[in-house]
Specification:
Radius of gyration: 46 Å
Strand content: under 5%
Structural class: mainly alpha
Mean pLDDT: 81
Strand order of the largest sheet: 1-4
Number of domains: 2
Low-confidence stretches: none
Number of helices: 11
Order of helices and strands: HHHHHHEHEEHHHEH
Oligomer: single chain
Length: 285
């Protein structure tokens, strides 16, 4: 249909229209010529009867020409249909182009917002934590906390925060030290190892466990504060990451650990003078 009714051409420019008119006109002329040739009386009378007789004689060629009216009407309708279809195709194409432009603009806007959000997150963490910043790659942390930024969703995913909190609390809950036990140094080493493993798991900078070495052996710290300090710093990192957008998704344990004032710890009560569970200090706050 498109071959005969090109929507990009006007109706009078269509080849099928030209051919149809030519063929029917030629056929009508030929038939009329045959009729005239075979007329016994070729004298035309310009009277009422003469015109009526002419219409009767040339009825066939006139009918052939009359066929042009319905055929041309059908052609015109077909051509309009082809033009309407083309117009719809162009409209749909324009809509697709517009939607694609909107999609590209949305994606670009989402990318810009994501980049800006990550940049602000970096600044926030660095300014708030300073030297206590433990996360090695803030962009990686940001991507885990805000996994839907590509779609324009700035909602915090609390799952990474919950995992950080849960594993940290497990370390604290399991930490128990008995200064009278022969395993006290092993217990401290295991505690430090658990914290180091935690840091590796969550891509944090390791802590430098500064303990004196006497006769080739590392000695126990003189104060519980030396063990608690890294835990408070980790809690501070968790709280900062969770509070960037003002989200409240922290457990009370983490908040208590973060707000713990080491200077308020009674060295006589919580020094290495008696068996001690680190969790007790938090529970008593």
């Amino acid at each position: 249909m498109k071959k005969h009714f090109d929507p990009d051409k006007s109706f009078v420019e269509l080849d099928i229209v030209h051919r149809t008119i030519f063929i029917l006109s030629a056929l009508s002329i030929i038939v009329a010529a045959i009729i005239i040739t075979n007329l016994p009386n070729k004298n035309f009378a310009f009277t009422y009867n003469g015109f009526n007789n002419a219409l009767m004689i040339f009825k066939t060629p006139i009918s052939i020409l009359a066929l042009l009216i319905p055929i041309i009407a059908i052609y015109a309708a077909s051509h309009r249909s082809a033009q309407t279809k083309r117009q719809m195709e162009l409209t749909n194409k324009q809509i697709d182009i517009a939607l694609n432009q909107v999609r590209i603009a949305t994606e670009n806007n989402a990318f810009t917002n994501k980049f800006k959000h990550a940049e602000e997150f970096d600044k926030f963490m660095k300014s708030r934590l300073g030297d206590n910043l433990r996360f090695k790659i803030l962009r990686s942390l940001h991507g885990k906390l805000y996994p839907k930024l590509n779609t324009g969703d700035f909602t915090l995913d609390s799952t990474p925060i919950k995992n950080l909190e849960s594993d940290l609390e497990q370390i604290v809950r399991k930490a128990y030290f008995d200064p009278q036990s022969s395993r006290i140094l092993d217990d401290i080493a295991n505690f430090e190892s658990a914290v180091d493993k935690y840091c590796r798991k969550y891509d944090m900078k390791p802590f430098d466990w500064d303990r004196k070495i006497v006769d080739g052996s590392r000695q126990k710290p003189q104060s519980i504060k030396l063990l608690f300090s890294p835990l408070i710093i980790i809690a501070e990192n968790i709280v900062s990451a969770a509070s960037f957008d003002g989200n409240e998704c922290l457990e009370e344990f983490t908040k208590t650990l973060f707000s713990l004032d080491l200077s308020s710890i009674n060295e006589h009560k919580f020094g290495f003078l008696r068996p001690l569970a680190l969790a007790n200090i938090i529970d008593l706050q």
